[in-house]
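Quick check before the chapter quiz. The format below is the same one you will see on the exam, so make sure you can read both the input and the output lines.
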Amino acid sequence: MKDKNFEIKGPVIGSNIGTSGKARTGNVHIGQLRDVAAVVRLLDELREELNAAQVPTSTIEAVDDLRAEAHRPQPRRDVTNHLLEKLTDRGLGEKMKDLAAAFDTLF
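Here is the expected output.
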């Protein structure tokens, strides 16, 4: 698959069931699926490492919040930067550089 944005225009399959084919859902924007998948993969790996190291729950919650932010259609840069700084303060500086670079592709 090429690294491009994909867009589906018109009705989504199954959207006109029971409406005589007249209902339309509008445009569905898929976006950069590969970038989101890369960020989520990094966050999942980090969460596994943190679970194995038995870190405080608040650190794992920050990773979960980052994961939720990555799944948003428009991730908020200020929220993401705050959470990344929070994790960097807890001794995860090197991992956060990779994660920050991956998040930059989403903005």
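If your answer matched, good. The helical segments are 33-53, 57-70, 77-88, 93-104.
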